[in-house]
Design goal:
Chains A, B, C: Residues 8-392 form the Glycoside hydrolase family 42 N-terminal domain. Chains A, B, C: It is an enzyme of class 3 (hydrolase). Chains A, B, C: It catalyses: Hydrolysis of terminal non-reducing beta-D-galactose residues in beta-D-galactosides. Chains A, B, C: Belongs to the glycosyl hydrolase 42 family. Chains A, B, C: Its EC number is 3.2.1.23. The structure is a homotrimer. The model of chain A has no long low-confidence stretch (mean pLDDT 97). Among the domains of chain A are: 407-595, Class I glutamine amidotransferase (GATase) domain (Rossmann fold), CATH 3.40.50; 607-652, Immunoglobulin-like (Sandwich). In chain A, strands 9, 10, 11, 12, 13, 14, 15, 16, 17, 18 and 19 form an eleven-stranded mixed sheet that branches. In chain A, strands 1-2-3-4-5-6-7-8 form an eight-stranded parallel barrel, surrounded by six helices. Chain A has a four-stranded antiparallel sheet with strand order 20-21-23-22, with helices on one face. The longest helix of chain A has 29 residues, at 207-235. Chain A is an alpha/beta fold. Chain A has 18 helices and 23 strands. Helix content of chain A is 32%, strand content 19%. In chain A, helix 1 packs parallel to helix 3 (54-65). In chain A, 62% of the residues are buried. At the A-B interface, helix 8 and strand 13 of A face helix 2, helix 4 and helix 11 of B.
Chain lengths: 655, 655, 655
């Protein structure tokens, strides 16, 4: 399985006279594939029904002439102004009932019938024209679904769609009333037509209603994506279908969307993400110019689990971005480090965004591989170095097999929605807890597969389940059958599929493997923690406590300061009744990993280790050089130990 | 006057087959009365004009069979969906002009003529059917007026109502122009029809306009409540009329609403209130699982002053709630402590919310006396213990007389509105200052009556007046005639009834008892304090300073660091020119109490003492046991000294 | 050039029987001019077409009788209710599409054709009636343009106006598409009629689109103002035309508005401004009751640069105001200090707001020279003292010439808009950086002229340019020709006029004097700083870094900790690549001032020095007395050295 570099390119942004030189310089740099065409609708169809294909024909040809493969995109993320003026119902509607207007991007409603039809039209035309073009080896469908919170819309079309969706799910209105529990607060409905979107209510809307609306909205993304994929497959046989997902855009479930594609790709912006996501200010300062050591790899491991073919990084940050609140400059070496880290975690391609910084419009401050005055920038030089190193590595080690961890972490998008809708504690943030579990595993040097609830669990030695409120009926049995050490986060099994408390109390369906009952919960404000202790190990518990009673035979392996159980174990299943500090979590996971027969090893804070294809990859996020635990007789293909700041080492251990 | 326990119950939430067992278990626990029916409209009238009374008939009968009294509620807090679809004008309108939609509760506008009429209809039907039912001894009107900020609406109906209200108040538009001072900024009106709601203006709307709008909105609540009470009294002779007010929902004046009822009740959620109200984060952490020692009692003392009959706690927190940002678990013993504290302050009934935690909908995480799987929860066990102790106490002491303090604290809802509309200092919060004064008194062991401005003041030794901008014309004379030590907060007398500065400067009408003039004021940002000193007592002043000049004969009893008077005294009247820190306030109040002939005694921080019916009640909010100042030969009926953490002691002092 | 005091007066707020006494007392106090009439529309025209001039005739006469000059205002800041009811399109529209309603002030849209016409009507009537009145020597046009964020409106009329404005600017839609770069994200337009206001988009609208909308909105203010001025000049020959600008209302460009007037005046509220503007909480507490020592003078120096005639302070804070979040009391002496400071910086008139505190409406807590019960307040006494001192000074020194600094600071309103629209770092605040540069110069005892980009630069020894993204084509040449030391802030020259990156990279047009290239930038979050060093001088850099490469011959005179240049110098031009801490900035400016042949002198923190007409003025903002660096043999006209807290000294140095 070979690995390669790509780049994102917008020929329409530049004078045609430099296209050829661009293409040749790309090829010379070691770039193999070029993504084009997303956002180009107004150039393809400048006026209704008037098409201009010639420039695009020529652009593709120029790239092909340079030996580059092309990833063609559908341009549906940016319908042009004239189309919006024709069909105002294309616009999504916000929670205040206002249309979200033209003038940026993603100004369309997934439920709009007009837009569905117009998208079919433009995608069909594009696919008919270019589907069999020999240089075009892949198609990207749309761009970054969910960006700018565009999954959930409150349009009339969405409301109609929601009613149909409910009818399909519940069949009768009585079944819905029963499932939701609408008798509460006299919210009973007489027909599906009485049901509005759960928005603009006096106080919080019914949580089951809200959860179903989020499920519906997520399904609409998958429906829309499938429409495009079906058209493309019909006209572009054998081409790879791909979408570029975006880090932590959790408003829709990525798994079903990915299931309709060949390759899941994601857009990796380690510095922008650090600034914009949940991290505390001191963490943001700590990793200012490198990103958090576990953030990109979390996403690599997540998207690796989405498609049979190796995932891609469709957009790789090449320098400062423009869209975070603050946009620092990556340290020299980080573009190379991020690139290799992606490959270490299984990427098939790392594609930089973008070839050249564009001097106009919203993203003019977003760096590229080249400066606006067309000189190779730092990121460009580092990409060139990576291209050379790929050759070295493939010469030394051949094509790299996909990595597989011995540890699985179960990730569930719907858990995010549920805790958002029904928090019970204001700062309980599902992705953060999932990330903290992942980070603890990674700081133990363990390779992790992030997988969906439906994943095959056989072969894992350890399975970590971040707070999982709703379980598939067979999950407990599958966890048990895996033979793995299973660690379950708090609030797991706490809800039924229609967001009710299970009749047998939480953890509901998990009682099959953990005969305990959560008879009470409490959430704790940020300035409150509870001490926790486990066999001499001291820590602090945050956010949440499940108060638990257990059947005989369940062991209390950690306890809170007031005596309530903090972690309970039954056979190979462990239930964590709270969220613990990083050290305590790491220590407990280390014990579990040892029990699972793994060989965890505490890494220095700035060092991360991954394994792929018989090779070990080491990455130093720190500002000091750092010793790599490579064992004796290791054969270094790239780098060395001690590993310099921002350094990458790739080696084969000899035992 | 006997005291008793009650519970809130929703038969419509549960299978009919468990109703009887529920009723029997309630009775066995010591519960005497059961509140039902609020929120049941969609079950009573599932479709327009189609009534289903049978289930409700049976539910009442089941409760009656178990010897329980029933508090029947009108279901008007939750009009069903079909009614909203019939009359869209029922919905309240927010400050942005958007209707606040169906899907939670309180989705009605007090000014909607449609809703007024529909409410008349459903209440009449209910009253006709059940008004004379022997088991129904009380009627609750609606539920928690004002919850979710539903008092003020900006609907067309409200606007029309406001114009009528203004016409009644001012008679001529000239009188209104004069009273408000509309010549300022060319805001003069030519007719009442030109006057809009004071919302959506470019900058702040006219404060007199805003204050009148708030008064109007408050009057609308009273008007609506009176409509229901009138219907109920006509059909349910001799039954107790009650509404369950909610802690610190100050958007309407509770006194006139209570005046139309027989019993004022309130819903006591000490932990939810602590988390959601003005308290600083460290205070919220300090009393996380007990609530603030003075908060529930502040409300008890407030609602005791609203009706001739003893107030009730209609809903008593039985465990964690679901609606605060964070929802901790009450410490064991707190449900009992809160229950006894209510009785100590004069409650006739403490009714727990709710019998059993419901596993669905918005409040599924709200604890009950029973867990969702129907086992008696901690709160249930504590309620049972209280039921037994009630018998002990009544055997030992007979029926308890209502408590009366020697100290009155004057509370005024309109003061809250006025300071909100016209703050002059962003963090000046009327209920907070009133509470701090109350807390200082309570930490001196003093029993306090919280009373309205119209209260009879004779017999009080000390009267504390939190910042009171607008005075009734006769208040100064009544304060003087009381013979009490009178302590007046800053900004008292600072405005006329139409929100102007009094012609003789503040404190306006209070100059009758305090011949001083506030010639200037200043507000201070939170990171600024001023030193204050009074006879060796040092403190800090916050928020606000009235700068004052005084006639001869007025004593300056405390001064700021820059020499301005901080407290002035004339005869028995004291004017506090600022808000002081807790210690200074407490010390000064102690001096005043001594001057008033009272016997203040500084209590430990966690201990509170109350007196009722010849008994002393002591409550320990702390985590350490604590000595109760019971004097010699006290006869303990419940508990002992030292008093355990979360302990209750009830004793008769023998002198 | 004589200097004098004025006052703002609202005869319509007071009973006519006290007008005469008011006028006489004003005159006795030393007041020379009285501003009246703004906000009086509803009294002039109480109903459509029904005029009441008599009261205004009499009010003017009463003032004239007392020997007072009158500044008459047009009343257009507050159209009356009946006018709004006639023409709903007068109301401005907010970013959510809601009309901003009647009920406060400035409820009009600069683009409304109805309001333009109605304004013409009322201004013409007023001008016809009073234009030649001998007592009326000046006309104020409207009041505080831009107050309450009223420059930018999203009405249909504004949208139409914007399209016309674009057509005039770009002529063809292709030119606009090219200038903005609309090919990005398929935002290409086919005609000007397709262009909406840049609001309500899914994510950020196109920055060039936004910048042009801001320019358009600013131009609309100038257009509206010019309409009124033209009418007034036609009917009021020889009268002074003035508008009262407001401190840091930067939403429109003040220079073109001022260019149509005779006198630029501003409204000086040092305490309100400190509380409401960008200052950190500890700075707000530090200067709580004095204001920041450089804030009023910054504005004096700014408005001095706007008109040939001496600027006025049209409204001078006379005590606490009502409109800041917190409103402290100025220390005794501050009203006098602020008044003299205005004169020291070139004011022709200082006019207090207001004669008497009004007891009603929105501003009832705003102090005046008199208390609401009509006694002379502190501010009144201090004004009286200033009136006397003016006589002393003018006797001793004659009429004072306008001050001129040797240092120019270039100020540009459009820079504020650009950085707001296109921040790249969330807390980069143009006025703050400009103010910090100014403050550094002032703490060196230097007199500063704040001037527009178009100013004549000859004669300055030092020119300081806060971050200036867009330059006029000739600025670099003019800077060079001035012969001054030129200090340029970061991000200068970073954009073209249509908000693109210059083809030759930043600093674009400045490369003529500074042959450097900013090849990359980074913004830094508030908890990150970078060390900086310059010849032994250590400091910290904040917010931003321009990473720069330089041609040979450019000197690196300061460097960041990681080696990147922090300040570069070429000949007399210095480029500051970041924002530095106050000490470092001050030290570097001191070096540059010395190189420029000036005599900077570090002043104590609380002392400020200004020069006018051969006199030196010293102001002590501190609470301790402080030595004034007056040299030997200075002749004190007012005050002395050491200078008392809040003291003013005026002296002639004898060398």
């Amino acid at each position: 399985m070979s690995i390669r570099l790509g780049v994102c390119y917008y020929p329409e942004h530049w004078p045609e006279e430099i296209w050829r030189s661009d293409a040749q310089r790309m090829a010379a740099l070691g770039i193999k594939q070029v993504r084009i065409g997303e956002f180009a609708w107004s150039r393809i169809e400048p006026s209704p029904g008037q098409y201009q294909w010639d420039w695009l024909d020529r652009a593709i040809q120029v790239l092909a002439d340079a030996g580059l493969e092309v990833v063609m995109c559908t341009p549906t993320a940016t319908p042009p102004k004239w189309l919006i003026d024709q069909h105002a119902d294309i616009l999504p509607v916000d929670a205040n009932g206002r249309a979200r207007g033209f003038g940026s991007r993603r100004h369309y409603d997934f439920s709009s019938p007009s837009y569905f039809k117009e998208s079919q039209r433009i995608v069909t035309l594009l696919a008919q024209r270019y589907g069999r073009h020999p240089a075009i080896t892949a198609w990207q469908v749309d761009n970054e679904y969910g960006c700018h919170h565009t999954v959930v819309s409150y349009s009339a079309a969405a409301q109609q769609g929601f009613r149909r969706w409910l009818q399909q799910r519940y069949h009768t209105i009585d079944a819905l009333n029963q499932a939701w529990g609408t008798v509460f607060w006299s919210a009973e409905y007489r027909s599906f037509d009485e049901i509005d979107a759960p928005v603009g209510t006096v106080t919080e809307a019914h949580p089951s209603h809200r959860l179903d609306y989020r499920r519906f909205a997520s399904d609409e993304v998958a429906r829309y994506n499938r429409m495009q994929v079906d058209i493309l497959r019909a006209h572009a046989p054998g081409r790879v279908m791909v979408h570029n997902f975006m880090q932590m855009f959790t408003e829709f479930d990525h798994y079903p969307v990915a299931a309709d594609l060949d390759v899941a790709s994601w857009d990796s912006y380690p510095l922008g993400a650090l600034e914009e996501l949940w991290f505390a200010p001191e963490i943001k300062a700590r990793w200012l110019r490198t990103g958090h050591p576990d953030f990109a790899s979390f996403n690599h491991d997540l998207y690796r689990g989405m498609s049979a073919q190796p995932f891609w990084v469709m957009e790789q940050q090449p320098g400062p971005v423009n869209w975070a609140q603050w946009n620092p400059n990556p340290l020299p070496g980080m573009v190379r480090l991020w690139s290799w880290e992606a490959f270490a975690h299984g990427a098939g391609c790392v594609s930089y965004f973008r070839w050249r910084q564009v001097p106009f419009a919203q993203e003019q401050m977003h760096a590229g591989l080249n400066t606006p005055d067309n000189r190779l920038d730092i990121g460009g030089h580092e990409a060139q170095r990576v291209a050379g190193e790929i050759q070295q590595v493939e010469q030394a080690a051949g094509a790299l097999q996909q990595p597989h961890g011995k540890v699985a972490l179960l990730f569930d998008y719907a858990a995010k929605w549920l805790f958002e809708i029904h928090p019970q504690g204001a700062d309980f943030h599902y992705p953060q807890v999932a990330f903290e579990y992942y980070s603890a595993l990674r700081s133990l040097g363990l390779d992790v597969d992030i997988v969906p609830l439906s994943a095959k669990l056989d072969g894992y030695a350890m399975i970590v389940v971040p707070p999982l409120p709703v379980l598939p009926a067979d999950l407990a049995a599958r966890l048990k059958a895996s033979g793995a050490q299973v660690l379950l986060g708090p609030r797991s099994g706490s809800k039924t599929a229609s967001l009710q408390i299970p009749a047998n109390l939480p953890p509901g369906l998990l009682q099959e493997i953990l005969p305990i009952r959560v008879w009470r919960v409490e959430s704790m404000r940020p300035n409150v923690t509870e001490p926790v202790e486990s066999g001499g190990l001291q820590g602090k518990a945050y956010h949440w406590r499940d108060l638990i009673e257990a059947d005989d035979g369940v062991q209390v392996v950690a306890a809170f300061g007031d005596g309530h159980p903090a972690i309970l174990q039954h056979e190979r299943s462990h239930y964590l009744a709270s969220v613990f500090d990083a050290d305590f979590t790491c220590d407990y996971f280390e014990r579990a990993a040892l029990a699972a027969g793994l060989a965890p090893e505490r890494l220095p804070e700035t060092l991360r280790i991954s394994h792929r294809g018989g090779l070990t990859f080491a990455f130093n996020y720190g500002s000091q050089s750092c010793v790599v635990p490579h064992g004796e007789h290791a054969e270094f293909i790239v780098g060395a130990s001690p590993l310099a700041a921002q350094g990458v080492a790739i080696y084969r251990s000899r035992h």
